[in-house]
Specification:
Structural class: alpha+beta
Strand content: 15-25%
Distance between the termini: 59 Å
Number of strands: 19
Radius of gyration: 23 Å
Number of helices: 15
Oligomer: single chain
Shape: globular
């Protein structure tokens, strides 16, 4: 039986009390689509419904419930995804034109924040795992060195866990940052399930418990919440909550969706009431899958089954199944009723969650067992993750200069005027202001041959790039 969230009940009561001479235009009568049953509590900021950008009523109470569940000092509900939290959080910590220390494997939203704030980025490039061609954990020593080398940096920005589930030692890194008086912002979009109670089931190292100052989490990625919903959590005293609020007012819509807000409150209630049982069952499903994966002879799965240790990983999220089966393997999954999250070169990502069907991973294991009998033995990943080229100017400066589109091979040695990335995961292969390298040209060619579409954001197309 589905239990209504506290916020939904409050909105339904308010809705029934008075006729709406206000937005939205459906007037809680004309459903925009069959089966869309939220119109009765799709509200605007009328008396009693609170205001997300100045919350002191039912929305404030809902966000306090979530903060208590995660153990944070404060939580903001986001209805524009983690993107909004990253844009607002970075701008709140790093004033216009300042310096920041940034992991090079951050999501494109982080780069957009650098661009909009005209920030100078000092990049931390994690080591690349040779077997899968993905970034490893951010070494704490690299963070310490960057803070010593750039004492004017206003914040450190990292992603943990990554899209592929690689976790960094956030507790250690937070202590390093705080010793320098610098706040740490963690993009934990793929780690909203790293709650305090989840540690007993194997999900340890969450950024909130580790002491990060601002943590952005996409509730919709691994938890039962609607797409576009996220949390922004605050810890400590290095981030000014008033400035965070001001920047959220800048970047987030002034007409937040109440159904999305209800989704976040409902997710919080579900976690509080059913979380322990659901996470225990999730762990049991993953353990059964791991046991089945040990029998595979020709199919490598990251940190699962018989996969070898990865020395550049601090930890890995077992809920992310990175299968080295390529586009052909992804097509085989689809033929057998499974749609993967991502296909990038040889890697195919299967995302799990505490809400999976009880037999879903057992069925996946059976499909992979059949695939494994005809699959070629796993080989080292091709060169799909090139080392970033030298930074010649800031992203903001590069985007303001005249540019031209040239063939990729002719661009080697020149300065990029656009982003290139595979989406997902949305981590730039190159950012504006960076040198175009021969390795980048080779990687783009390899990815496109493997069937991975590369996004060209500056108006160029396949085999081309916009340069200054």
């Amino acid at each position: 039986m589905t239990v209504k969230s506290t916020l939904q009940q409050q909105l339904e009561t308010l809705s029934a009390a008075r006729y709406p001479l206000h937005m939205p235009g459906h007037k809680r009568r004309a459903l925009p689509a069959p089966g869309l049953g939220c119109a009765a509590w799709d509200m605007t900021e009328i008396d009693g419904a609170d205001d997300l950008h100045d919350a002191d009523g039912i929305l404030a109470a809902a966000m306090q419930r979530t903060a208590a569940l995660y153990g944070s000092r404060r939580c903001w509900y986001l209805v524009g995804g983690s993107t909004i939290g990253l844009l607002a959080g970075i701008r709140a910590l790093a004033p216009f034109g300042s310096e920041v220390v940034v992991a090079r494997n951050c999501h494109k939203a982080v780069y957009h924040a650098l661009e909009l704030g005209q920030l100078t980025a000092h990049y931390l490039t994690p080591p690349v795992d040779a077997a899968f061609g993905i970034y490893g954990s951010v070494p704490p020593a690299a963070v310490a060195a960057a803070l010593d080398a750039h004492p004017q940096a206003r914040c450190v920005i990292l992603t943990s866990p990554t899209y592929e589930g690689v976790v960094s030692d956030i507790a250690y890194i937070a202590r390093l940052c705080h010793a320098h008086g610098v706040p740490l912002l963690v993009d934990e979009a793929h780690g909203a399930h790293y709650l305090p109670f989840a540690a007993q089931y194997g999900w340890q190292g969450g950024a909130v418990a580790a002491g990060a100052d601002l943590v952005v989490q996409s509730a919709h990625k691994t938890l039962p919440s609607l797409t576009q919903t996220a949390f922004l959590q605050l810890n400590g005293s290095l981030a000014d909550p008033a400035e965070v609020e001001r920047q959220l007012d800048v970047f987030e819509t002034s007409s937040p969706s109440y159904p999305l807000l209800v989704s976040l409150d409902g997710c919080t209630g579900w976690l509080a009431q059913q979380g322990c049982a659901a996470f225990a069952a999730w762990r049991a499903r993953l353990d059964r899958f791991d046991a089945a994966a040990k029998k595979l002879q020709n199919t490598r799965i990251l940190c699962c089954g018989a996969d070898a240790p990865h020395p550049d990983f601090y930890a890995h999220d077992a809920g992310k199944l990175l299968l080295q089966i390529g586009a052909a393997g992804a097509a085989y999954l689809r033929e057998n009723g499974f749609e993967p999250e991502m296909v990038c070169g040889p890697n195919v990502l299967a995302m799990t969650s505490p809400c999976d069907a009880e037999d879903a991973l057992d069925r996946l294991a059976d499909v992979l067992a059949v695939w494994d009998k005809t699959a070629a033995p796993p080989a080292a990943a091709p060169h799909i993750l090139p080392a970033p080229g030298a930074v010649r100017c800031t992203i903001g400066a590069a985007l303001l200069r005249p540019s031209r589109i040239v063939p990729m091979q002719s661009a080697v040695g020149q300065t990029a005027a656009e982003y290139l990335w595979a989406y997902p995961p949305g981590v730039p292969l190159i950012a504006p202001g960076e040198e175009v390298t021969a390795a980048l040209a080779a990687a783009c060619e390899e990815l496109e041959k493997a069937g991975t579409r590369i996004k060209h954001i500056g108006g160029s197309g396949p085999d081309k790039i916009s340069v200054i």
